[in-house]
Amino acid sequence: MSDSYLWTYPKAYRQQHGPEILSTLMDATEGRPSLRDRASLALAGLRMRAVQPHGRPLRTHLWLVVQFAVALVLVHSMTSVQGITWGVATARQGAPWWPIVPAALVLVVVGLAWFVPGRTLAAACVLLGIYYLIPTVRFGWLPAVIPGPSDPKAWALLLFGGLVLGGDRMPRPWLAILSVIAAVPIVEWFTPTVPWVPQILISVYAAVLAVLVAVWALVDARPLAALALYAVVATADTQLLQLRYQPVGISFWTLHGWQPFLPAVASLLLLPLAVWRVRRQSAL
Amino acid sequence: MREPTYFVLASLMDGPRHGYAIIKHAEEASHGRVRLSTGTLYTALDRLTAEGHVRPLETEVVNGRTRRSYELTETGATALRAEAKRMAEAARLVTDSPALTARLSPRARRRPA
Known about the structure:
The complex is a heterodimer of chains A (284) and B (113).
Chain A: H1 2-6, H2 11-28, H3 35-50, H4 58-79, H5 81-91, H6 100-115, H7 120-138, H8 152-165, H9 172-182, H10 184-189, H11 197-216, H12 222-244, H13 252-256, H14 262-282
Chain B: H1 3-10, E1 17-18, H2 19-29, H3 38-51, E2 54-62, E3 65-72, H4 74-95, H5 98-104, H6 106-110
Antiparallel strand pairs in B: 1-3, 2-3
Helix pairs in contact in B: 1-2
């Protein structure tokens, strides 16, 4: 019976506390738990599984939020704009596999973090280092937006990211979110070569991710706060890149106005709400 | 400290209690305001245990039900008293206010606006 009521709880906790929780549940509901009681228990089990570490102060949770936001930005910098637009286009002209290299490296890092917690720093540094060396060593002819070892920003990002990611173990649902984002170029690469397909895929990905994270926020609000931070950086980065390649003589603002920055504004508004949820979640 | 946590700790002041006894005591002590679900109670107990505020005791089987009682630790008692003191000070700010007392006195109420 314990498995049908307590299936969302971690196995170790269920084995240790299952019988007493069931006794309390049966006493409190006179032996007939309602659907609401079961849902409440399922949610509590998921929270217990997700919101780790327990009994730690708010700053620990906020630090994890920053770590995750940095991880998202790193993944973004490796797999987004350059990997998707120029990457796929260039790849189809003669270097068929290179756009999926950074995505595959990220998936390897995430895999290491999943199976070997505490080794994320070393794995991230080695693999990101390899990635930043790749463009110059093998693909020197690619557009200048690909960061190479001569780009100090890339190394600063790598160092900062490595230091930030080297701390606590990252919860597995968060690693799954990283994998979903990193897999975009791979999924895109295996889709038919229709020019507008990548755009649709990205929006579908974003929508699916947003819904999943919004639902998961009921259990753990920390990824939502990190994604809000990441969305600000990603939106600004993408739009500023467009600004850089704007044809001479035409103003970016005349063409697009403020509309492209709306997701960043929405994320800035979402951020305090998410942090409030994190505060509430971590309060005793 | 959130209200449910306060009442969970307060229910352990007089000695160890098991889960259902904590739920009942918290509801009575809060005049029905705090109704803990089983899931919420055990999440709170798990966190309070991790913080060192409560200590789980050995399980025992009573009338076919498995029970585990929880007791308040010194850390928990200190935190509970500090929270109670904080709330009492906040309450005194209002209850000891001469201005508010005068405003709500029967004589003041009779005075036309």
